[in-house]
Amino acid sequence: MSNASEKELTGTDKQAKNIVIKIIEGKELKGGALENASALAGLFDGKKDLFEVICEVENKSGKSIANKEELIEYFSKLKIEGVVSIKYRQAVTEERLLELFKKIGLKPKDKIMVHSSFLLIGGYMLKNGLNWKEEMQNSPALFIKVLMDLITEEGVIMMPSFNHGAPYEEGGPGYYSPLETPTTNGVMPDLFWRMKGVYRSIDPTHPFAVWGKNARDYVKNQHKLTTMGYDSPLQMIEKGGGKVLIIDAPKGNTFHHIVEMTNNAHCVSVRGEEYPVKLPDGKIVKVRTWGWREGRCKITDPVLYFKTMEERGLLNIAMIGKAKIFTFDMKDCRKVIEEYFDGKFEGYGCKICQVMPRVVPETVECDWDFAAKKVKSNTTAFIGECL
Fold first, then answer.
1. 313 vs 308: CA distance, rounded Å
2. Under the phi-then-psi rule, with left for phi > 0, alpha for psi from -120 to 50, and beta for the rest, what region is 32?
3. 102-128 burial, b for 16+ CB within 10 Å, e for fewer?
């Protein structure tokens, strides 16, 4: 029945392909076993993976097995009870992660920006044979722990904790709170900003979260600066010789926005939108952020520059299953992106682009003094201390 190609496999199918089960000698499934469990258990030999066994049972019976996810959880519980043994064809352990991160160039005292997705990595069990839901909850914490142990408190780890305007949409609270608002950047950043020792900025739509040496200094002034410009949180990482770590998120590189704003790209506005923010003391104030562009950037939105960087050997790449993980130096990334902006690649360049900043109800006149490189004294925005 199940002759699907690799591309057609569901997440549960891929998980089953990673699991090899064997009944422990002298043990057997108890009466009242989960539907289809006994039929599968009779074929467990410690060599075939669960997906192969499911396919064999389906082909013999001519019927599809619909409760695969429940079966995976059922056999995981039997492992804990000592009835079966489970091996994983690919296991992501703390030791393997540490080795992988070192292999792609991370080391103690590094300053790194991290982007992550667990859509593919989630297909590989991590530790101790826990069930799928528990693994998905535990895996981001494991990645963060390994990174913190490797980078140490003498380095810096930064992640996006952006909300992309979600609090201001219909049904939202109407304000951003650095202590309450979830990020839309995924499970790992949403765990990270809530952790002890992590500081989060008060930019209303694009706040950063940071841990490590002098962490507070990276985010305390973002609301007084240009969101992605000079001396903004991520640009400070760049100035310190920063690196970017991409965990299966090939289009998640916020650093290209730093290159945009520090090159005065005309498609985004400087402090051009203003939104309510709830400060840690509960006070509601208006805070500025950048104004997003009306259309797509042909260069940064599809991250064309990654292909160029890979061709030039500027990416340090490793794999976890089918998930691509890589690092690069920000200085190398800036150089390549600026080549695109300057028109050194045919058909590309800021000078020939007509995309401009959007206009929304929150759009306001820029309050930035470009000569003095600071906010104008007559601004309507909050620029006080709060962290």
1. 9
2. left
3. eebbbeeebbbbbbbbbebbbbbbbee
| pLDDT over threshold 50, residue 14 | yes
CA distance 286 to 168: 13
Contact 229, 250 (CB under 8 A): no
Characterize the bridge pairing of strands 284-291 and 374-375. unpaired
pLDDT digits over 175-213, tens only?
Answer: 999 999 999 999 999 999 999 999 999 999 999 999 999
Residue-wise pLDDT tens digits, 225-265: 999 999 999 999 999 999 999 999 989 999 999 999 999 99
Task: State the DSSP string of 238-291.
Answer: HHTT-EEEEES-TT--THHHHHHHHTT-TTSEEEEEEEEEE-TTS-EEEEEEEE
Q: Report CA dihedral (333, 338, 344, 346) to the nearest 10 degrees.
A: 80
Strands 374-375 and 269-278: unpaired
Predicted confidence (pLDDT) per residue in 317-331, tens digit: 998 867 899 999 999
Positive or negative torsion for Cα 183, 187, 189, 191: positive
Q: How far apart are CA 152 and CA 101, in angstroms?
A: 13
pLDDT, residue 6, reads 52
User: Locate tokens 């258990």: which residue?
Assistant: 41
DSSP 24: P
* CB within 8 Å of 54: residues ≥ 6 apart: 2, 16, 40, 65, 68, 71
Paired sense of beta strands 316-320 and 284-291, if any: unpaired
pLDDT exceeds 60 at position 30: yes
Cβ–Cβ < 8 Å for 190, 132: no
* 186 closest CA partner among 151, 134, 136, 232: 136
Do 238 and 231 meet the contact criterion of CB atoms below 8 Å apart? no
Structure tokens at 216: 């507070």
Reduced to 3 states (helix: H, G, I; strand: E, B; else coil), residue 112 is strand
